Amino acid sequence: MSVYLDNAATTKPCTEAVTAILDAVTENFGNPSSLHKVGLNAQLAVDRARKIIADSIGADSGEIYFTSGATESNNLALRGAIGAYGKRKRKIIISAVEHASVDETASALEKQGFEVIRVSPRDNGQFCAEDFVNACDENTCIISIMLVNNETGHILPVREVFKSVKRRFPEIITHCDCVQGYMKIPVRVNSLCADMVSLSGHKVHAVKGVGVLYIRKGVRVIPTVTGGHQEKGIRSGTESVPLISAFGFAVEKYASDIKERYEKVSALKVHLLERIAEIDGVTVNSPENASPYVVNISAGGKRSEIMLHFLEQKEIYVSSGSACSKGQKSGVLEQFGIRGKNADSAVRISMTSETTTEDIDAFADVLREGIEKIRG
Ligand code: PLP
């Protein structure tokens, strides 16, 4: 039995997404920009997905811009806002635990002369909204905070921060990387007080290569990709009808029972923690109030990569941290106070609503075996 517990890296596309792709590459293959019926049908498929995704976050269709994925969405959010407002406002605020697509984009802008402030969690590993608000001032252009951390599942106080920021500095653009929260916990742009939100298709049972940047009406963004004026000029390039359509179908499938699936995965997390508690030397790094979809543990001081390969030999697939960092230490665990041996032996288990108790049991059994057998 193969057990896939690396859903924060990517999810298996659902049947509806696959069917949508097949339809868009065999039947509905037109270019949405073409002024004939074949083009119009492709445009209708894109519009359909746009409406479904807009509804799922409480936005208008006109505020949804398709991109190649959340990496591009995050780049567009930061670079686009700086392009529009950065002449007057030179400061960028982010959390110190952002995904590389935000963190490294901020670093690139820092090299161009912008000031970047990275707000860290407090000693208890939790973020304090006040720390973000205190970092903001009249010179701040954009604040970008993720909703759910991809390595530990920490839920950041985005709504609290953005609400306070908007109250004190209404001009600051608020951006939230919602990739690991979308379709798992409710994401509503107004409730979050977010001017921009990034989403990724392949984390929600659609496919790789498609993402969304929600941009609130009235917020200016200078495009990072120029050309044929698709997506109202904000993101040029012929729309990938197959991927966009698949994204829409996956969201349509999963949007209606977020709460039920959250409860199911919460019960799985409880079971996982019970099984892990039986194993000597294993500690849990994710806090109790984290998203249940991501559980970060330290596996008895055994090096992550070695444990990963041990699990892999038994067809159990987890991650040592963020899939994007591929062996490179990201520094995020350290920010959360996970250091030394605990960081070196960190294993990320990330679930989906299709994960079963049997999957968790299989993982826990092999983890125990690994801890007993792996030396050093
Ligand atoms: N943001 C977060 C929090 C992520 O976890 C990821 C992917 O791991 C991304 C952004 C990048 O998403 P994409 O793979 O769609 O570029």
CATH secondary-structure class of the largest domain: Alpha Beta
Bound small molecules, by name, code or SMILES, are:
pyridoxal-5'-phosphate
Tally of alpha and pi helices:
13
Order of helices and strands: EHHEHEHEHEHEHEEHHEEHEHHEH
Strand content: 5-15%
Structural class: alpha/beta
CATH topology of the largest domain: Aspartate Aminotransferase, domain 2
Describe, in short, the structure shown.
With 376 residues, this protein is an alpha/beta fold.
Verbal overview:
The protein is α/β, with parallel strands linked by helices and 376 residues long. It has 2 domains: 3-11 and 257-373, Aspartate Aminotransferase, domain 1; 15-255, Type I PLP-dependent aspartate aminotransferase-like (Major domain) (Aspartate Aminotransferase, domain 2). The chain contains 13 helices and 12 strands. The strands form 3 sheets. A 7-stranded mixed β-sheet has the order 2-8-7-6-5-3-4, with helices on both faces. It has a 3-stranded antiparallel β-sheet with strand order 9-10-12. The protein has a two-stranded parallel sheet with strand order 1-11. Strand 6, helix 7 and strand 7 (196-200) form a beta-alpha-beta unit. The protein is globular, with a radius of gyration of 21 Å. The mean pLDDT is 95. It binds pyridoxal-5'-phosphate. Residues 69-71, 99, 101, 146, 150, 177, 179-180, 200, 211, 323-324 line the site of pyridoxal-5'-phosphate.
